[in-house]
Amino acid sequence: MVSPTTTLQRLRLYLRQNQSRLRAAPTQAEQLDMLAQAQQSPDDYSVASLRVVEHAEMRAVPVCPVPQPNALKHFLDGIQRQRILYYDGVVPVFYAYLSAVVRSRVDRKMCCLPQTASLMQRDALYAPLRYVDAQGLRQQGIPLRDLEVGEPLPPHPALIQLAANRISNDREILERELAERWIDWLSEQSSEDWLVVDGAIAELVRIIPSAKVIGLAKTSVGVERALSPEQMRVVYGLRKAERSSVFAVARPGQATVYSWFLRLHDPTKGSLLYGLLRVETPVDEGILSHVDTLSAWILEDRVPLAVPDTRYDRLLYPMRDCEQYLRAHAPSVAQLEALAQLV
Amino acid sequence: MEAPANDKPIGRVVGTERKPNTAFTFNFWCNPDAPVGIGTIVVVRGEARTVWGVVTEGFGYNDLETPIYDYIGSDGVAEAETPTLRPEMRLYVASVLRQQPEEPVQPAPIAPVYLADEQEVRMALRMDAFDARGIPIGVYRNGERLSPILLDSRFLLGPEAGHLNVTGTSGLAAKTSAIMFLIQATFQKLSADETVAALLFNVKGADLMFIDLPPEPDFLSDEDRRMYDALGVEPKPFDKVEYYAPFKQDRVNLNTLRTHPDLRYNVHPLHWGLKEVLDYTEVMLNRDDIDVKADAFLQFIKQRVVDPGKFEFDKEEQDAGAPPFMTVSNFSELTRWLDTVLRVAEKRGREAWRSHAYPTIRKVHNRLSNLTTRYRGLVGESGYVSDLPDRFEDRTVYVIDVSQLEQEEQDLIITRVIAELRKRMESHNLGVDHLIVVVDELNKYAPSFGKETYMLRTLLDITERGRYLGLVLFGAQQFRSQVERRVAGNCATSLYGRIEMEELAQPGYSVFGQAVKEKLAACEPGEVLVRHPHFTQPVFVRFPRPCFLRGSDGIRRYPPQEKPFDVAVWETLRQLDPQLDYTAVKAVIDDHAAQSNGMDENRVSEAMHRVLLERPEPSRVLERFRALLPRMVTASVLRSPSGLTGPSFNPATTDDYDPDDPFAGL
Question: What distances in angstroms separate CA B72 from CA A49, A241, B77, B348, one per listed residue?
Fold first, then answer.
């Protein structure tokens, strides 16, 4: 596997050699809106069914502190950084950097455990390879990902959408690979620690159904749409340190997961969604007896606040730590901008 | 804390747009527990460049944007314990000490940062260039490791540069201790080809009165001994010390705290006559006394009367009652000469004498004849002189004890000694290659404001030219800002101990960053900041306590013992005749007392000084003492001769009666 630094060096060489033939991409600032529109939310828009499994009907449950030490010890998150690097003719060529990390909490400090790989990074050029100089890029040893389009060439917005989705999918795959590796490693260690993953875990649970893993979803548009008005009233009415009843969520083609809402912060200070987090766990009857404990542990992680991130009301501090760590390793905007300006 | 192995980095250089690195400073981050602080010497090892630096500023960060977030996060509960600690880091700013290659001068590379070990410290401070000439000033401490810090003797003692200035709050073991350690280190480490001596003034207490004696057994701590080991300096008292002190009011006992019988062997009197002090009337007399006219007459006395030793009156003056000539070599003779001059002037109706106004002559007479009373233990009528040696000896410390004296006596001694040293310096007559003269309270003797005094001019001359001629000033003061800039500025090496913030706020300290100033304000005893020509940036060093008996311990072990008057006279005369019998001397004194209705100590001491001045053969010492001791003349009342006219004289009734003024009341 080629390291991101090496890829950038090779790209620099390639762009210098071909600058007369290639066309410049818009600046990063100019691309932001375009990419934001193309980016689909990874969240589950389509929920096949939602069934309350803990109580007869959805209700609010106060969460009290628990005496057990917090076993949420490992936190996984990923990031992606992408931009159209140049145009080969009229075809946009994306550069994407993807990374995921597991940060562990040891003696209250976040760190990467040296015992196993914690960080995974990948980068590549994303383009419909049949329309670009794939051979020249391969000769430079630059990693490529084909957007696999047929003829005729799709319109520009569709290409952008395609690339954005492909990059997001690859990032999810990278996160899953790392999660699987860690779940295996924790299992080998007979560890009682939990792995906390940013976002939904349905796909991961499909692969490893019995994992000690929980997912934290900061946005839950699909699930919220599946709630009945009465359930919605209960969920939006949750007060600080209250959770909803556990419900099972099934999505088309994905494993069913258990889930519940948890209010981290007092909603009177913000919107209905202020401090509202949704937790996912694998489907396991035994998990129901751990819901209060898991909820209490998550509540403990309300502090320190994940400021200055604007999502601090739902973003646990260890997750923010993961993001910071990944950003520190990612190529800087200035680096990518400088690369793009070679054309 | 034990420093990490030198091959393990403790941080990494960072440069941002807002905080870029330059050729003279660089930034690096560290873990909070890294053994780095203000003054730490570090080295950046880049691929093509090595940069040494000293930490001058430090910042602590976590990822909080504002304090309010922490307050909100903890609900205002200070003791709340979060499950996760925010990452914390230190960002340090280091000033570049050296870089290799030296050219081109570039900013530090983005590379790992290491603690400097002993070898790195040598490189950083360019000590590799002057190892053989190095004088240890202290150690740089890196955890448990001690690295010696050396000063280049050619830049401390001359001729390349010279002089030392020490600043520090009094009483915190910075100034005197640092200087004494440095002198000891100089004596031990200066090349054997070069000779060096030191002259000190003991101005307070008994600090320097026992520097030739070993300290109490547990005085030096283990840390002190480790420092001595690291510096290669043997912890021992000074081998050769000579003490000097003026007499007390009785003019036979020495006015010093070192009077214990076991320690008198190297204590010498400091006593001057007319010739020795006439140049220093500016110090001895009030500023109001010396107007232009008085100064002119004083110059006349010096150049025309005292220096030749003999004054010839002209015919006209002889007609007015003056003798053909008078010898003037001491205060008694000067007084008689002035009396004669005044008589001549009066005979002429109190007109000017040789263009000097009568009131001026009278005023000078009044002031000069008073000096042997005001400086009683130091300046004598007889002309007996006991002064510093003609030539200083190698590796010897000369201590002049002025601690028991009044301020004006201290000023006279310090001024004259310094001035005499300058004269000797000019004539290449110091006797050693380097003479270190230590002057404390430099802000008093070379003040940054006020009139340019004789002392200031002397000190300026020494600091400007002394390094070429072998005279080196080690000056010290509490407030460097109050010392004449040229004097302090001419000192190539400077030490700074603890300094009050008010002083640090003065413009002269603006070269130091805020963190360095704050460290200076809290400097521990035995720690100083060193500036030296070879060091691009100042460095903090620690020095061991000087290894000699502390003043308070010395006083306890060797309490001062004042000798009875007759014993003191006997012991003094024994310098001329070691076989001199005490009872014989006592008999002479008793005889004098019997004839004079009681002993006049003044006359006895004067006789003793005259004997010392004459230096007769040993066999004639007692005889001369007896002969020079005046016998009291029996008083008789003379009847007033008839026809004598003149103003009535009754001094007791005049308001401005001055017993030392022979013309008062006239």
Answer: 39, 16, 9, 100
A301: nearest CA partner in chain B: B83
Q: Is the CB of residue B84 less than 8 Å away from at least one CB of chain A?
A: yes
Lowest mean pLDDT among A196-200, B62-66, B273-277: B62-66
Asked whether the bond before A154 is cis by omega within 30 degrees of 0, the reply is: no
pLDDT band at A331 (very low <50, low <70, confident <90, very high): very high
What pLDDT, on a 0 to 100 scale, did the predictor assign at position B74?
78
Helix or strand or coil: residue A294? helix
Band of residue B638 on the pLDDT scale cut at 50, 70, 90 = low
Class of residue A75 by CB neighbours under 10 A (exposed 0-12, middle 13-18, buried 19+): buried
pLDDT digits (tens, 9 = 90+) for B318-357: 988 899 999 998 898 999 999 999 999 888 887 788 889 9
Predicted local confidence at residue B505, as pLDDT:
93
Q: Which of A248, A172, A180, A173 minimizes the C-alpha distance to A213?
A: A180
Query: Any chain B CB within 8 A of the CB of A194?
Result: no
A126 in reach of chain B (CB within 8 A): no
Beta carbons within 8 Å of B278's beta carbon, 6+ residues apart: B298, B301, B302, B306
How many CB atoms sit inside 10 A of residue B126's CB?
Answer: 17
Single pTM value for the model? 0.79
- The bridge status of strand A119-127 relative to strand A91-106 is antiparallel
Judge whether A313 is closer than 8 Å to chain B, CB to CB: no
Does the structure show a pLDDT above 50 at A191? yes
Report the C-alpha gap between B302 and B310 in whole angstroms: 11
The answer to whether residue B199 scores a pLDDT higher than 70 is: yes
Note the pLDDT of residue B194.
95
**Separation CA B467–CA B491 (nearest Å):** 10
Query: B63 vs A305: CB contact, 8 Å cut-off?
Result: no
Residue A46 tokens read as: 């389509």
Please, what is the Cα angle at B433 between B430 and B436, to 5 degrees? 75
Size of interface A-B (CB pairs under 8 A): 45
* Whether pLDDT at B651 is above 60: no
Point out the residue among A70, A300, A304 whose CB comes nearest to the CB of B73.
A304
DSSP assignment of A221-269:
HHHHHHS-HHHHHHHHT--TTEEEPPEEEE-TTS--EEEEEEE-S-GGG
pLDDT band for position A269 (cuts 50, 70, 90): low
Q: What is the ipTM, given to two decimal places? A: 0.79
| Extents of the domains making up chain A | 1-38+80-190+329-343, 42-71+192-302
> Distance between CA atoms of B249 and B259, rounded to whole angstroms?
15
pLDDT at residue B666 is higher than 70: no
Name chain B contacts of A108, Cβ cutoff 8 Å: 82-85
Is residue B339 within a helix (H) or strand (E), and if so which, with residue range? helix B331-347
Task: Give mean pLDDT, residues B610-617.
Answer: 88
**In this complex, do B69 and A109 lie within 8 Å of one another by their Cβ atoms?**
no
Residue B8 contacts residue B114 (beta carbons within 8 Å): yes
Mutation site for B-interface testing, chosen from A74, A111, A307, A333 by largest number of B Cβ within 10 Å:
A307
B339 Cβ partners below 8 Å, 6+ apart?
Answer: B365, B662
Q: Which residues contact B465 (CB under 8 A, 6 or more apart)?
A: none
Q: Which residues pair with A122 in a beta bridge?
A: A98
Task: Kindly list the distances between the CA atom of residue B532 and the CA atoms of B57, B94, B131, in Å, as whole numbers in the listed order.
Answer: 20, 18, 15
Question: Residue B222 phi/psi, 5° resolution?
Answer: -60, -40
Partner A contacted by B63 (CB < 8 A): yes
The full set of domains in chain B, from first to last, is 11-120 (no CATH), 157-265+386-476+494-507 (3.40.50), 275-374 (no CATH), 565-628 (no CATH)
Q: Is B65 on the interface with A (CB under 8 A)?
A: yes
Backbone φ, ψ for residue B15 (5° rounding): -140, 125
